[in-house]
């Protein structure tokens, strides 16, 4: 049975019994954290939206097999990580597909317009935005397990033990991955913070 504090597992058990309102509650709670995690992993907003929906679809399809042996969030992010890895593998096997998908048949569709906020934002906000971009770039360059550990660490409700379960590794190895990832990020960001110059 789930821990008394794991209300999400209790909700998922209701989903297992056919309670759609409980499923909607879980989707509402985890939609944004899940999207953020996937988007930072794949660095593609539209694909991340599709993949996040796919994660919830997998959760719903697996509802009859669900057993509250781990926290619901651990189970959810394990599914998300596996789907992200599948997508990364697919991209590496078919790199041309992504280019073709972005051109050709979609050329006639209206493109989403993004406002250039650099001119309207105070200088400090622009610099903070640039730094956030550099941090995301640096995270994207980390090895997969370090990157995933760091991204999962940003989810407030995930403990080191849960991250270890998601990564399918020991607690000490997880702590080491997070430590090494943070050290690498510090080194990468140090020159930018000192000079404003970013070297990839």
Observed structural traits:
Arc Repressor Mutant, subunit A; 0% strand; mainly alpha; Rna Polymerase Sigma Factor, Chain: A; globular; 200 residues; 9 helices
Describe the 3D structure.
This protein has 200 residues and is mainly alpha-helical. It has two domains: 103 residues, Rna Polymerase Sigma Factor, Chain: A, CATH 1.10.1740; 79 residues, Arc Repressor Mutant, subunit A (Orthogonal Bundle), CATH 1.10.10. It is 70% helix and 0% strand. It has nine helices and no strands. The radius of gyration is 19 Å and the shape is globular. It starts with 6 loop residues before the first helix and ends in a 5-residue tail after the last helix. About 12% of the residues have low confidence.
Number of strands: 0
User: What proportion of the residues is helical, as a percent range?
Assistant: over 70%
Q: Rg to the nearest angstrom? A: 19 Å
- Kindly report the name of the CATH homologous superfamily of the largest domain: RNA polymerase sigma factor, region 2, helix turn helix motif
CATH topology grouping of the largest domain: Rna Polymerase Sigma Factor, Chain: A
Supply the CATH architecture of the largest domain: Orthogonal Bundle
Highest CATH level, the class of the largest domain: Mainly Alpha
For the report, how would you describe the main beta sheet? Answer: none
Can you give the mean pLDDT?
80
Structural class: mainly alpha
Distance between the termini: 48 Å
- What low-confidence regions span 5 or more consecutive residues with pLDDT below 50? 98-121
Query: Quick one: overall form?
Result: globular
**Strand/helix succession:** HHHHHHHHH
* DSSP helical segment count: 9
Question: What is the count of distinct domains?
Answer: 2
Q: How large a portion of the residues is in β-strands, by DSSP E?
A: under 5%
């Amino acid at each position: 049975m789930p821990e008394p504090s794991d209300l999400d597992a209790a909700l998922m058990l209701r989903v297992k019994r056919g309670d759609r309102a409980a499923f909607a509650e879980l989707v509402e709670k985890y939609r944004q954290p899940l999207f953020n995690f996937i988007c930072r992993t794949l660095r593609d907003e539209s694909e991340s939206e599709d993949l996040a929906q796919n994660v919830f679809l997998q959760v719903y399809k697996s509802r009859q097999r669900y057993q509250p042996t781990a926290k619901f969030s651990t189970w959810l992010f394990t599914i998300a990580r596996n789907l992200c890895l599948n997508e990364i593998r697919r991209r590496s096997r078919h790199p041309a597909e992504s280019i073709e998908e972005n051109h050709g048949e979609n050329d006639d569709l209206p493109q989403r317009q993004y406002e250039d906020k650099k001119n309207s934002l105070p200088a400090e906000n622009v610099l903070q935005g640039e730094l956030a971009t550099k941090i995301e770039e640096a995270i994207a360059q980390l090895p997969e397990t370090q990157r995933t550990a760091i991204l999962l660490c940003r989810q407030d409700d995930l403990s080191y033990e849960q991250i270890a379960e998601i990564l399918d590794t020991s607690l000490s190895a997880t702590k080491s991955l997070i430590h090494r990832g943070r050290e690498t990020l510090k080194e990468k960001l140090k020159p930018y913070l000192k000079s404003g110059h970013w070297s990839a």
